[in-house]
Amino acid sequence: MASPIRAYLNDLLNDVRQIEGGEVATYIPELAKANPASLAIAITALDGKTYAVGDADLPFTIQSVSKPFLYGLALQEYGRETVLKHVGVEPTGDAFNSTVMDEVNNRPFNPMVNAGAIAVTALVKGESYAARRQSVLDLLSRFAGRKLKFDEAVFRSERDTGARNRVIASIMSQAEMISGDADQILDLYFSQCSVLVSVRDLAAMAATLANGGINPLTGQRALAAEYVHDVLTVMHSCGMYNYAGQWSYEVGIPAKSGVSGSIAAIVPGQIGISAYSPPLDRFGNSIRAIAACKRIVADFGLHAFRSAPQSSAAIRGEASALSVRSKRARTASEREVLAREGARIGLLEAQGALFFGAAERLVRRIDEVLPQVDWLVVDMRRVYDIDLAACTMLARTYAASRKGALIFANARDPLREALSSMAAPNTLFADRDAALEYCENALIATDGAHTGASRLSLKSIDLFAGSSAGDLQALERLAKPFSFEAGQHLVREGEVGRLFFVIAQGAASVQLNLAGARTVRVATIGAGGCVGEMALLDGSPRSADVIADGRVIAYGFSIEEMMALSETHPRLLLTIFANLSRDFAERLRAANNEIRSLGN
Ligand code: GLU
Question: Which domains does the chain have, with CATH numbers?
Fold first, then answer.
């Protein structure tokens, strides 16, 4: 199937091609050679997938679109404070090559106008001019994800005709806004402007900024994450020459344009966009590239401040232990406690990206539910992102909560770290099942129901419930004691089952083996529970592994001997099968309840 995005971009290309007007820049003579009919648009997603249409591989010089990337480099090398001494962050409303400076602070207004960009270029580190020139090329190449080259003809052309930039540099030199050889600084600036790129490259460069500084094509970091938003902010307010304010208003995403006719625009966290067409409007922005960006943003609602409310979706579901249980198999008396008192264990399932607005909903709900329950499990399995604000709020909620009441399952690292200094031992569980099992055990313990009979009486085993004294005596004669250490198998998947076990002490987990050596625990069986009893029903091989969690004392019964008992004790097997069926029915109902209350 043809990609709908590609098809969209092709339609867009045809529409934009109809737009007339504008002039190709001629003040740098080499630029005047550009074909006014050239046109290209590209979008790069954050996994590196690029959609490019039109003259997508046509090289042109990057010009001013290099400025934000060099600004990022300066921030990374010197830090915010030092860079701010050299260049401000105020929009000017003046032309890109204005000689007006911020005289109060003795610095150019911002790094997107020529003066500010030259001040930034003056900060590039390197032993020699050649080394600095190489480091500029390396920087832009890191953003593009491939080795870029200079267009030496454009470089020379601009150097020979760049009188205006020489005026700017000399004003800055005199005012000591830049130090060192001004001609060499200008040469470096002209060099950075003459690097050859295509819209594919610019889309990748924009996507690198959208991706927190990591190039989505190479996976390499091009800019430290902490400076990405500085660069984007300055692009947002100053990136489009003296049309910047209106651009923010109409289009509303950070972008930078250049006189060769290109624009690189960023939808943070989503995509990088680039468009190219040489004819420029009176501000120096490409008429068709602006139109293309405008359309993309309007058609897909990408304006930075057009955010859709998503906060209410922070909670996916709510339940209690009345309907959702751990996979721990429970005896009849334990089940009775859980059915009676299960409302004392609450469960909140969080979902999505937890940022300030979403986390506010979650912590508000935690505060409402917590007083009504003894334990509240907050399951974060479906939370795919959690920011600093959410971690801070959850950590504060935890700090203010009743000790031992608030429990997290599947918490991600940032939250674990935020809680690390105060989390009590049973606060963070690897998964919901483990958290619920802990709460159930605590609930059963407070209720006084037995969780682990130390002495086994066959009468108290659910599987044998209802058997006559005579039948139980016959069973007792068949029981053989076994003991398992942690990690030992009671039952092994695939083997023919000759025994089934009744656990007297300890607990064992039923584990399924999945593809790729992964395993999943489907149940834990404690004292009074049975293991391998399915072999009584059919002769099929064991369906799962059952592994001792710790030391397990169990009684083993030979299937063959049990079957033989039917001759002398015919009611015994009937009772056992009736109990087994009831157990299956209960498990099925529990599964249905869980699906009903939380979905999948
Ligand atoms: N090299 C160009 C100049 O400084 C860049 C201008 C631009 O693209 O805005 O004049």
Answer: 4-300 (3.40.710.10), 315-447 (3.30.750.24), 458-598 (2.60.120.10)
